[in-house]
Backbone:
């Protein structure tokens, strides 16, 4: 007898489709399937056929036609008509075919009625045609009951996409605390936008998005912060149409590795934005007559400045390969290796002097930020109105300073940057073909970040402005009544008003330094939650403002109780005292009680597109527990990882192993 696989959940189906397409919507005819709700998924069509055709039961003995054989998704993945090249190619388009066993799992999911969740603790019949000639019954056991002692592991997929699928805010993270996989996804997204430059009329291409800043940017008054919040959002939407899991990161330039008091001695810019060669770069260079044996030690080494890179190349294989055509091929290789690097950027280079002496600005420090956050009026913080216009202090420093710091002065320029009074004449704009090779090979006097007209063409622009937006959000939390004067002003070229921008979360994001997500699944109670140790990066452990444990999408629970949170104490239980050093905090649950209505009364209704009713009071919610003090104690004592233990205690002060349900748990660090 054949053994049937456990049925998938809707989320697992989406994950399979995202994995096989590498998050590229064009692989499914422009459908971002992994961003859809189940209802959107079931209502979609592909090639004139229903994406998924679920057989609807009419009686105990008959059903409407449907199932996998009538579903465009399965036909396409198998390469069957009309996806057999007769009308369309096999799905996913332009990608490798899905494994047969994975297609079989999706077929079984459709045969089960395309459920939201995998069947939990119930029997279901595997269809005769799906697996064998026998009728097979499979029992699916809730994992929380089957192995109550199992430790939950960190999610290894795209955290932001997981959160979005569950109706939560995506997270903009600290670029110095992101994983290499997250950075690579960001690089891929920017590379896709650059590729769209081949279609000049495509509004999504990078140059057209950058051109908005050139033509419409707002500085020096109260529209500065609202306008740039919208600008960041608009770019992020273009990116997420390609890579739904990618958000724009922020650069906290006051972190210790940047040595704000002596910035020339620090990292200069984030490593993610620096120039480097990959192993794949060497064959390309060799094909153009450049000796590569001596370059192998340089592979992977990060260079903040291209002058440092070419000095290293000269020392490795000879100075003759640092000029002319050879130099251009190196620039090609660096751009291919890291789309976040930009050759018209000369960070921290000011004719051999410091930024203080040459520009009369100083690199922003943590003390500068504290003083700016202590301001109380929006005019002082963010800028004055048209009746009383003035630069806000945030606009001047750090914003202006970081533009100058990252733009810098090219020490190898063909023409000198000139005296201070003439410096802006040296930023060439007219006649340029941005992001064309001829422009990227040029040697201008100043980096593009030095001018409002060219700054947005350098990808470093975005992480600086995301940090400015983050600082504004932090100031808003401290000063909720601090508002611009003219809230009805329209932020051209869009139709947003200043008022529309005041609540950051309505744009679908929040700021975290770093996050660790542990999926659980709300289908069955969590008898006991203990996580595996979560490795916390030194850049996170070294400095964070607060730490939170979050319980995600907890449904309305029938009974009241408490959830105590312990860190690095897997054996904690109801008898563990709350004065224990590893006790981190607790949350209280106010139970719903027995349902007072008829069948379905307490169920959360499926919201339609035009549902104007307020959200159900039974809708799942998130819980947050501040664990800052406990996390700091552990890190100060030498811990490099955190394991989370949740102890659920009922009203009788005994452990309640059948109460808590939740979709997941996360550990979040905030700047």
Residues:
């Amino acid at each position: 007898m054949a053994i049937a696989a456990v049925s998938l959940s809707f989320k697992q189906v989406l994950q399979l489709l995202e994995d096989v397409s590498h998050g590229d919507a064009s692989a499914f005819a422009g459908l971002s399937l992994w961003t859809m709700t189940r209802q959107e998924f079931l209502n979609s069509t592909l090639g004139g056929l229903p994406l998924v055709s679920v057989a609807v039961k009419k009686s105990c003995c008959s059903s409407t036609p449907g199932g996998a054989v009538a579903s465009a998704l399965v036909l396409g993945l198998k390469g069957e008509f009309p996806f057999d090249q007769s009308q369309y190619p096999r799905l996913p388009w332009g990608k490798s075919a899905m494994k047969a066993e994975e297609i079989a799992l999706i077929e079984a999911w459709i045969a089960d009625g395309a459920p939201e969740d995998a069947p939990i603790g119930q029997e279901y019949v595997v269809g005769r045609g799906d697996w064998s000639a026998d009728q097979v019954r499979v029992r699916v056991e809730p994992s929380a009951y089957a192995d109550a002692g199992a430790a939950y592991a960190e999610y290894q997929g795209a955290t932001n996409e997981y959160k979005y699928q569950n109706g939560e805010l995506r997270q903009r993270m600290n670029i110095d605390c992101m994983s290499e996989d997250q950075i690579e996804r960001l690089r891929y997204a920017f590379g896709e936008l650059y590729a769209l430059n081949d279609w000049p009329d495509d509004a999504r291409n990078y140059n057209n998005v950058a051109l908005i800043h050139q033509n419409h940017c707002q500085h020096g008054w109260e529209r500065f912060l609202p306008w740039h919040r919208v600008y960041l959002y608009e770019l992020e939407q273009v990116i997420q149409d390609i890579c739904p899991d990618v958000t724009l990161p922020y650069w906290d330039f006051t972190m210790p590795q940047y040595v704000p008091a002596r910035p020339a001695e620090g990292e200069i810019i984030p490593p993610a934005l620096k120039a480097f060669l990959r192993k794949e770069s060497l064959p390309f260079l060799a094909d153009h007559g450049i000796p590569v044996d001596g370059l192998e030690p340089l592979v992977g080494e990060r260079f903040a400045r291209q002058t440092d890179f070419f000095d290293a190349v000269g020392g490795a294989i000879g100075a003759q390969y640092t000029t002319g055509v050879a130099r251009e091929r190196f620039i090609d290789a660096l751009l291919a290796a890291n789309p976040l690097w930009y050759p018209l950027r000369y960070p921290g280079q000011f004719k051999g002097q410091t930024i203080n002496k040459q520009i009369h600005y100083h690199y922003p420090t943590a003390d500068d930020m504290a003083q700016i956050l202590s301001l109380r009026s929006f005019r002082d913080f963010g800028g004055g109105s048209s009746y009383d216009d003035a630069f806000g202090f945030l606009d001047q420093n750090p914003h202006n300073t970081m533009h100058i710091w990252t733009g810098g002065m090219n020490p190898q320029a063909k023409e000198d940057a000139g005296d201070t009074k003439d410096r802006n004449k040296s930023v060439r704009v007219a006649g340029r073909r941005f992001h064309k090779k001829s422009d990227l090979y040029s040697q201008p006097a100043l980096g593009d970040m030095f001018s409002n007209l060219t700054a947005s063409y350098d990808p470093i622009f975005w992480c600086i402005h995301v940090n400015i937006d983050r600082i504004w959000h932090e100031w808003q939390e401290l000063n909720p009544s601090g508002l611009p004067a003219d809230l009805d002003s329209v932020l051209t070229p869009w139709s947003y008003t200043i008022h529309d921008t005041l609540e950051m979360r309505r744009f679908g994001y929040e700021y975290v330094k770093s996050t660790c997500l542990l999926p659980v699944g709300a289908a069955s109670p969590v008898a006991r939650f203990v996580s595996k140790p979560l490795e916390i990066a030194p850049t996170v452990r070294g400095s964070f403002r607060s730490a939170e444990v979050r319980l995600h999408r907890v449904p309305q629970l029938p009974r009241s109780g408490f959830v105590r949170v312990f860190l690095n104490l897997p054996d904690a239980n109801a008898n563990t005292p709350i004065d224990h050093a590893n006790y981190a905090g607790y949350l209280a649950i106010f139970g719903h009680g027995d349902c007072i209505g008829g069948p379905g009364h307490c169920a959360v209704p499926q919201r339609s597109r035009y549902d104007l009713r307020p959200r159900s009071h039974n809708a799942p919610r998130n819980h947050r527990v501040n664990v800052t003090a406990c996390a700091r104690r552990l890190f100060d004592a030498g811990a490099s990882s955190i394991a989370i233990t949740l102890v659920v205690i009922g009203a009788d002060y005994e452990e309640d192993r059948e109460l808590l349900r939740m979709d997941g748990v996360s550990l979040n660090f905030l700047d």
User: Anything to note?
Assistant: Residues 224-242 form the longest helix (19 residues). Confidence is low (pLDDT under 50) at residues 1-5, 56-65, 120-148, 417-421.
